[in-house]
């Protein structure tokens, strides 16, 4: 979520008033804003997307709740020591959190372990351990519409009789100390991005948030006029008309068997009725196609922790496979592929298959990704129910990612096309009229230059490196992962360095290359990549021949509040994943909206950005998905590229020989070995096209006016990538609710009785 203060002032229309008031108290608002900690309760794109979605849902007047875990420790703080990443705990609550309100009156029990008793009256889950879920509510204000939604995060608490009810005569002190065991559930965020780690505590976290949330939703449904009761029993027929639940990846997949358990075991609905309601309630968003990221939980772990849920999953699977067998008799291979249970050394539950079978809609997050989901990853399921599969291209909130972080540009745009674009970003197309307006071109360039000077001062303060603010700011910020190919950027830096040294007199377009991002603490290769970037920076930044022509900065502890500083100052945005691996990306959109040009592959939302702005207005290079597939068929041989390309050979040899690590010549042998023998992401195959494309970038940068014209064309084409557009599509195609642009009257004005009705029947 990042910081909340400035976003709240903007959405309430209070920023100028607050700035002025604080100034009159002799304080500086910006200094005050810098004191607030980021709420870093997610890992990367997926968590930030949820935050943008909350802003858009409130702005569109949807009655929507964001549910999650109130981690005591969020994503680790990253320190760079001697070029290596070192993790520190993110004690973000140390000074309290003024934006949250504990709601103990809504505390709910969550059960674990135990066993299942079957009887004539049905199944009962007994002898469980209980953990209490305490909700904390954070307000989510819409933009200038007097709407405030809620983000409800659950914290784990031990019940007061924890470890004391089992008449353990003795150790009262130990029993109280053991309360930590229960409360550890919400202690810390698992720091993996695009990687599955099958740990028991992680499964506990996933079930904890799901069980508390579903109880909360059902309590709210029963209290509403829709939860009509026939004598004692609630009638749940209208449940899917009143409730829509969107599963953000498979992490909350246990919600599907949990809702079935509530309906069948507790509310005593017949299975078929319960299943029909469940499917109509859930929809699933897939966020990755990397096999190592797909959740596959061991059956024996689920059996120990959630024995009733395992039985329900088996029953879902049995009925699912019976259905497929009826359509494809004797196709045992298809049954194996489509089963929720994977046989093997250890039997596992494929959570994506559970989500597909248990949802009425499945979507990818960019056109190209949704196609890959349909035709490759889940092709058997899409063949069965093609109408279930959709695309919902990701977006970003223009409130945080333009108004808040780039007020200079936001104001310049408002002067030309009015202020309405903030709620309807498609209006940015009106900027096309000003592409040839010399004054506007100069003003856009001036805002960018001011942002660069400000960020250069920040860098000089933090990193003690002299930055040339007229150099091209070439920025690559995102989680560190092999598929995102920070290594390819690194090879380009080394290539530029070698060219400067080979011919110091030759014209060279000066660059400041900024790379930032966190590596999962257990991801060895990602940590080596960080060390390599820092080792290269050490050499480049201290070479007198290079001088101010090339500087390399590794940006420490990349997070939302730092993104808000670097993105508005960026000239060139690096989006260079191997085609077919980045589901969408959202950083790409933030840079486009803030006046950077993109160098990128035809991957994720880059494809649609090129479609909107015109491919000639992005620097697109490298293999397309078809080329990657072709190369896989043929067999990727890295050695061929190394032998054929002298500059690539030189760069790789320098890494290999210890040119960048003279005290430890073999330091990067793992990296080099990977690049030659098991590089799944084919860095060498795109190197030549990348370097050539970078030459075109430098050439255009020399012509400031032509560069800025291209920038304006990009901003004018960025409208599609508002999360408001994305959420309208979810609302209409999946949740079946209508966004409302009714401005609720402020609380100090009396309301008409007619205005009291909620504009939308349903809650998402």
TrEMBL record:
EC numbers on record: 2.4.1.1
SUPFAM superfamilies: UDP-Glycosyltransferase/glycogen phosphorylase (SSF53756)
Catalytic reactions of this protein: [(1->4)-alpha-D-glucosyl](n) + phosphate = [(1->4)-alpha-D-glucosyl](n-1) + alpha-D-glucose 1-phosphate
One Gene Ontology term of the molecular function aspect: pyridoxal phosphate binding
Region (Disordered): 738-764
Requisite cofactors: pyridoxal 5'-phosphate
Biological process (GO), any one: glycogen catabolic process
A single GO cellular-component term on record: cytoplasm
Residues with PTM N6-(pyridoxal phosphate)lysine: 590
InterPro entries associated with the record: Glycg_phsphrylas (IPR011833), Glyco_trans_35 (IPR000811), Pyridoxal_P_attach_site (IPR035090)
Pfam (any one): Phosphorylase
CDD domains (UniProt xref): GT35_Glycogen_Phosphorylase
Top-tier EC class: transferase
Keywords of the record: Allosteric enzyme, Carbohydrate metabolism, Glycogen metabolism, Glycosyltransferase, Phosphoprotein, Pyridoxal phosphate, Transferase
Family designation: Belongs to the glycogen phosphorylase family.
Function: Allosteric enzyme that catalyzes the rate-limiting step in glycogen catabolism, the phosphorolytic cleavage of glycogen to produce glucose-1-phosphate, and plays a central role in maintaining cellular and organismal glucose homeostasis.
Quaternary context: Homodimer; enzymatically active. Interacts with PPP1R3B; recruits the phosphatase PP1 which dephosphorylates and inactivates PYGL/glycogen phosphorylase.
PANTHER family the record matches: GLYCOGEN PHOSPHORYLASE, GLYCOGEN PHOSPHORYLASE, LIVER FORM
The protein, known as: Alpha-1,4 glucan phosphorylase
Organism placement in taxonomy: Eukaryota, Metazoa, Chordata, Craniata, Vertebrata
